[in-house]
């Protein structure tokens, strides 16, 4: 049985925004925005509609959970769709299948059942592996292609960290970094025209798209969603915010997000441990932070109707945000009951991916588990 920190079951209020909540409201944009504009450029999906629907789920998630649980695209589906220039219909089919699966699993109690049987070092290994992957992405996918803004934005993070050592002030570094990105957009393109966002239209793909999406997109996404979007998110939210978040409840909202956005023409969404760490790292403590982040995304949907405009944000901006989140996740992941197992999973994740590392960790525990020994120790 997995160890869980002692947490309060009292309902968390949805207070007015604090300075820290404002600062943390945009902290996961470094993950969300690059994926959205890459998908839009390769698949032709409406960037405006993706931002609009994601913003709506930001707001709903903040109201439902009252803590800053992340909302972000399905990573495996995004990676495969970007690499393969997949059609919007195929992406929608994958989101609908994934959504139905996780709604059913959550309602049937499947995620709570898994949580009770998957050892905590495996979940810590997912956190640690995700931290290493974000570290790799921050440097190799963003930092080296834009070292000037990468270094500048890291300097902004360090500056605010030094200020906070002397003064009790919110960490506004994420807002400052986002302001740098917006400044570059204004300098490059001028003020974008404000237009109504693309309106959702209910669309169900044909059967042939579901037949392709099942093995090609949904199967690679399933272990990643179980490990990162649900189990690791549940554990990390409890550790950081001291409030229990049921894996089954997370499964239902992951399914509802993926299903609804896919039917309405957006990109399928989920939760994610990296996003939770991002919000926490930059100061978000309440669901009201997500509400503000959602409003910002909805506002962006009226301005950033062209992915070319969004892609003009310097890569170093995203790299610096990801680097800070990576360090937060690595710090959390290394606090494992079995650091050898968690570390091995993290090393496997770098070349092979999170899904392979998750399966390897479970198999390792099953093979080496001594009868009668405490399960959480592997």
Comma- or semicolon-separated keywords:
378 residues; mainly alpha
Task: Give a written overview of the molecule.
- By secondary structure, this protein is mostly helical.
- The protein has one domain (19-131, 173-314, 330-377).
- It is built from 17 helices and two strands.
- Strands 1-2 form a two-stranded antiparallel sheet.
- α2 (29-43) packs parallel to α4 (75-84), α8 (147-166) packs antiparallel against α9 (173-189) and α10 packs across α12 (273-281).
- The longest helix has 35 residues, at 207-241.
- It starts with 18 loop residues before the first helix and ends in a 10-residue tail after the last helix.
- Residues 1-11 and 370-376 have low confidence and may be disordered.
Strand order of the largest sheet: 1-2
Through-space gap between termini: 10 Å
Number of helices: 17
Instruction: Please tally the β strands and state the result.
Output: 2
Number of domains: 1
What is the succession of H and E elements?
HHHEHHHHHHHHEHHHHHH
Largest sheet, in brief, is:
2 strands, antiparallel
Radius of gyration in whole Å, from Cα?
Answer: 20 Å
Helix content: over 70%
Which regions contain 5 or more consecutive residues with pLDDT less than 50? 1-11, 370-376
Query: Which structural class do the helices and strands define?
Result: mainly alpha
As a percent range, the share of strand residues is under 5%
- The oligomeric state of the chains shown is single chain
What is the average per-residue confidence, as pLDDT, rounded to a whole number?
86
Shape: globular
């Amino acid at each position: 049985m997995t160890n869980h920190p002692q947490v309060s079951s009292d309902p968390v209020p949805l207070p007015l925004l604090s300075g820290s909540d404002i600062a943390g409201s945009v902290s996961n944009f470094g993950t969300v925005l690059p994926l959205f504009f890459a998908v839009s450029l390769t698949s032709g999906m409406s960037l405006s509609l993706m931002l609009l629907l994601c913003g709506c789920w930001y707001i709903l998630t903040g109201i439902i959970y009252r803590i800053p649980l992340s909302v972000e695209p399905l990573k495996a589906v995004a990676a495969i769709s970007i690499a393969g220039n997949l059609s919007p219909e195929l992406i929608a089919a994958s989101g609908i299948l994934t959504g139905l699966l996780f709604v059913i699993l959550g309602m049937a109690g499947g995620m709570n059942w898994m949580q009770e049987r998957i050892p905590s070092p495996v979940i810590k290994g997912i956190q640690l592996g995700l931290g290493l992957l974000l570290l790799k992405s921050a440097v190799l996918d963003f930092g080296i292609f834009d070292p000037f803004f990468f270094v500048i934005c890291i300097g902004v993070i360090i500056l605010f960290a030094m200020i906070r050592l002397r003064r009790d002030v919110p960490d506004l570094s994420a807002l400052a970094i986002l302001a740098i990105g917006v400044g570059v957009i204004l300098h490059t393109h001028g003020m974008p025209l404000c237009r109504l966002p693309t309106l959702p239209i209910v669309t169900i793909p044909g059967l042939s798209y579901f037949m392709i999406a099942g093995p090609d997109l949904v199967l690679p996404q399933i272990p990643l969603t179980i490990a990162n979007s649900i189990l690791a998110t549940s554990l990390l939210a409890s550790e950081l915010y001291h409030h229990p978040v049921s894996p089954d409840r997370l499964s239902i909202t992951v399914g509802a997000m993926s299903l609804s956005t896919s039917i309405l023409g957006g990109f399928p969404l989920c939760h994610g441990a990296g996003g939770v760490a991002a919000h926490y790292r930059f100061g978000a403590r309440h669901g009201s932070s997500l509400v503000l982040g959602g409003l910002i995304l909805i506002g962006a949907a009226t301005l950033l109707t062209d992915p070319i405009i969004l892609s003009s944000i310097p890569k170093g901006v995203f790299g610096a945000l990801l680097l800070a989140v990576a360090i937060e996740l690595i710090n959390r992941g290394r606090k494992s009951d079995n650091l050898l197992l968690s570390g091995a999973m993290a090393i496997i994740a770098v070349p092979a991916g999170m899904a392979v590392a998750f399966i390897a960790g479970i198999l390792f525990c099953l093979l080496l588990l001594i009868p009668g020994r405490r399960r959480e120790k592997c």
